[in-house]
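Table S5 (text form). Sequence records supplied for joint modeling of the three-component complex.
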Amino acid sequence: MSAPSVTMPEADIRWSLPARGPAGMYCLIAAEAAIFTIFVVAYIFYIGKSVSGPQPHDVLRVPVFLTICLLSSSLTIHFAIKLLSKGRVISFALWWLLTVTLGAVFLAGTVREWRHLIHDEGLTIQTNLFGTTYYSLVGLHAFHVTVGLLALVTVLIFTLLGNVRREHTQRAEVLSMYWHFVDVVWVVVFIVVYVVGR
Amino acid sequence: MNGQRKVTNARVVRSLDTLARLVLPFCGSVVGGFAAPAVPWLSPTNIFAPVSTPAQSIFDLSRFVLMVTASIFVVVFGLLAYAVVKFRKKRVSDGREPAQVYGSTQVELAWTVIPILIVVVLFLAAARVIASIQNASPPRNAVEVTVIGHQFWWEYRYPSLHVVTANELHIPVSDAEHPAPTFLTLLSADTDHSFWVPRLAGKTDLIPNHPNSMWVDPHEIGLYLGQCAQYCGTQHAKMLLRVYVDSREDFDRWIQEQSRPARVSAAASEGQTIFERTACINCHTVAGTVANGRFGPDLTHLMSRDTIASGAAPNTPENLRRWIQDPGTIKPGSKMPAMGLSGPDLMAVTSYLETLH
Amino acid sequence: MSTQSIAWAKTEVSRRPLVEKLHEWVTTVDHKRLGILYILYALLFLAFGGVEATIIRIQLIRPHNSFVSPQVFNRMFTMHGTTMIFFVAMPILFGFANYLIPLMIGARDMAFPRLNAFSFWMTAFGGFLLYFSFVGGDGLYGAGNAPDVGWFAYAPLTSQTFSRGHSTDFWILSLLVSGFGSIGTAINIIATILCMRCKGMTLGKMPLLAWLNLVMAGLVVLAVSPLTAAQLMLLVDRYLGGHFFDTQAGGSAVIWMHFFWIFGHPEVYVLVIPAFAFASEIIPVFSRKAIFGYPVMVAATICIGFIGMSVWAHHMFTVGMSSAANTFFVLSTMAIAVPTGIKIFNWLATMWGGQIDFKTPMLFCAAFLFQFLVAGLTGVMMSAAPFDWQLGNSYFVVAHFHYVILGGIFFTLFAAFYYWFPKMSGRMYNETLGKLHFWLFLIGFHLTFDFMHIPGILGMPRRIYTYEPGRGWDIWNLIVTVGVFFQAAGVLVFIGNLLWSYWRGKVAGSDPWDAWTLEWSTPSPPPTYNFATIPEVKSRRPLWDLKHPEDPDWQYE
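The corresponding structure-token record, covering 1112 residues in total, follows.
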């Protein structure tokens, strides 16, 4: 005998719940935000406390161009999603590619900045508290950019193989939420490290 | 009939259990709390047997808090016990469900507001004591001691009195007419420690790169015990505290003796030579000699102490010899290595140390 | 009445080879199987943690005992704490959450079944990694082996200077790995509850277990991440020469404490809130009354979640914070006692006027109420910071938190085991053995943890491998150790009961307790798809409505 079915009479209720993908991604963003918060708190706590070695205002150069690149990539990914929702897959692919490029430029620029800091200014993660907190925070962010880029590239490859269509908009949108989060984190990092901390 | 007896037995056991639950949890604190001043020998480290103002303030606060929590306990426990007994399912039930009560705004409001009021009262009581203990500043005649925690011993420096010693702290007694508090600055040479002598004050941690301070003003002469209360490594358990509260005269005399350099004794010169030639001087200081190591305790007046190894063993020749031979026999994990001295060398060094009064 | 006997047809569909059955379990994404895997995993590690506790207590049975060396003892308390929190309590609660939530909200599975499996295996791997340290931890100086830095691993004890070898690294890495598993499960729980409820089940109509696990999952998301961050920082210090906690370079040992306890305090709410969930489901059924004050129970839990993120430094009252900081944390800690106390009153009111049937689940829940009351009150004592300056870091604290975790959480966990065992296995457990378990464990628990408060009051700090005679601690330590054996006996009876009943228990049917939530409408055990047709509900107790069509819940609330 099957279990009693639990259906109420007159049960014609309109029933819509949030979608799982975005809900899960918001939670992931919350968790990541908590991790970044701790690194930011450590950075702020240790401002001015290095006992020796290079100080922020001596060696940091404000990365204006890189910031513009990264923040623009939020715009480009937004356009890409809009286009995909309209079914214009080729335009979507172009804007998506532009997003990837901007992100890659950001990473390349970060690498260049670090080479300069390590070789020319003698600032490493071991040098002092500034070095430790700076490389950890900026590095954690760069790591998240890298992971995001890998995911974006994967989607790009699927698109080139013809597997991405209009019905995949929500999935692409979930990924773009992650990308927007990475950009917001950069805004915070930028302000804390290059504005306040200098 | 059988069922009835089973129910009766269960009921008896349950009431006994209830009784036990009523008595046991607070038995200890009640006994400790109210019996302690009359019977301090219940434990030499009883937090309810204060002899110093910080410990006393805490004790007074704790009695108030215990009164409040005990009252809450009696009321809620009583209600729970009543519910458990009174609303048991009757053996003969008519199969109907009891009245379904989904909530009651008045009741819920009441049992929200009352706890909030209790919280406000407790908070104010605690805040007052925090301020009185933490915001006290040292009067001019306070004795100032710098305590430096090491793995696994205590270093004591009296900066203005030019005394450096280890493991046994001497402070003067203080009373209402002649207050003479001792203010302790707490530092650490390695990892986290905590200074806890319950009858004198609450514990305060010693954290590297984070100086702390605390104060005591004991009004009874005597020896007060405690130990490190923040896990600091292998021998955390044997980082014991011995605080000697002396009369003013005794304390002044002790300071006098401690500030002298080490006695020179011709008979112990062989031991002294071995001591100074071996690695001993890398870690230990003996004032007035070449030994000026800071890693281990100052030994200048070693024989003025009742114990060695931070309270781990009584200061007897036998124990001293055992310690030097191999500290691991008394305190395995101590930072002092086994010195590997030969028999005669060991005897000589021990004899030398025994002259360091 | 709804107890239906479903004939336990010994289906000879096919004698599948054992390997195939194991493979099914290893690759499963079914929330029920993953739930059971979590629970079995946790029970295994409960045995490990229990052995460690027993070793600790035997060593402390008398002063200057030499049952184990200080080095071994320090590893024991570190591993005991780490194991019990991360590899027993969290997995077992996640296991129940996994099993029950979809069933109780009328869904077929969790929102992300593959993430679910991934999270379980991450957690499992973390535990095995931690225990591998016993054999694989030897580093330089032979100073490896299992971690011995305490479960909260204060800096700078964890720096390379003071913790040579790899023991600390095992602590860091195993928790990092299982932390990802925890966050994954939490994300799954939140997405499932928000996105997969059956028709008619608004947030205000879902069972309290769902609400409380939602709050718990939110706490995990926000609180486990700080631990992850702190551990990454510690790795940077230990391996990249960083200075986050390097006091020699101006770093701060206190900031580790802040970061750890920003995780550590919400963590205890992560553990206790699901325990509240069990009590909130079981007490009503065995009192035959709806839960009293459902909306306030939800509100109180959300309050606990929020306030719980602001109390962490009450673990640091002795560290030397300013009087202002100390005062603030006194206030926030005392404040959280209010919503927590309210819940006790609501459970009491649920029982009030009921017809309480003291089957084993209800016995455990009744004991929980008494014990959680005591645990909460000792917490209130320590929330008065000056009192904590004496009680902190002593055996009073150890007694308090074991009172919460064992007396509170484990008692409701046992209740949950007995309550849902019929659903998970299709069999009834043995009631006599259940009661025997209860009494043995109750006696043992109280022998150990009631008397443990006393050495704390008499000045005994925690984490000491031995103690001096003449401090008045001897007799109490002896009694505490004796209690351990009663508890062990109780747990053995419990395991025996589960095993025996699984094969020989009476067939349970779908609803042996005459309960009211959706999981009791499925067969026992439920089929893979949970429900033949997804249910539609109109109130908080859909089965009550079915059984009492003349008096349904939705006419009242």
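Note: Chains B and A do not touch (no CB pair under 8 Å).
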